[in-house]
């Protein structure tokens, strides 16, 4: 089987690419800098700016493979929402006209539903969910360090995230200072009461699911990572959830004012790559919106965000 990975050197795409190559598949990596993944006899880098590629250019690439995995994420900027949605629109049209065996797109947690208690709402609709997500990220060294890497180590936003994590650690340890309390209050008030606390990429990923929902014109599957999607070890084991945000049944932190605190499940990027590779082999979730969760044994450690070929 020959598989094209859009965004092969990124967070999700690099791990999927390495997982597939280790299984013996031929991988075509498509991006502006596909060589960043490394070199391998089963890896073919194709230089193409996905954000500006025409539908015809994408079809030319897709017709040479059996499966396409879309792990593309545009760089942050003032037009990231438009870039994300318009690029995926072209990718989807190209996939429909390329006679693929399977098309896999990696979405975001924001497109997952909040369940029967909150009908017609997704995670990206809820400030309460987003606050629990911010808290869970701060309580995880792996998640915090990954976000620092993405945002830029030493940047004002990165420093603010680290300061919030330190304050949360002090709170959980019972040693919270007045400065820590102020940091927590300011950060969390901005999420609950501030303007537009949810970034454009989760919103764009949610909107992009509408290209697929109910679409029977080509074989696709849409995987949305759970809330805690972080660097970490490959365990090779996961459980699958459909349509809704994976949560533990009851809050672990009794007395919390947030119904999602202590309930957010997760998976390492390496284990989600395993789940995606398994899916292109079995195709059991065609036409489905799903997520996967696993144990997170390395949550309080720092891990490389990006996989590399040896």
Automatic annotation (TrEMBL):
Domain NAD(P)-binding: 9-135
Name of the protein described by the UniProt record: NAD(P)-binding domain-containing protein
Alphabetical list of Pfam families matching this protein: NAD_binding_10
Molecular-function GO terms, alphabetical: oxidoreductase activity, acting on the CH-NH group of donors, NAD or NADP as acceptor
InterPro entries (alphabetical): NAD(P)-bd_dom, NAD(P)-bd_dom_sf, Polyketide_Oxido-like
Family the entry assigns: Belongs to the avfA family.
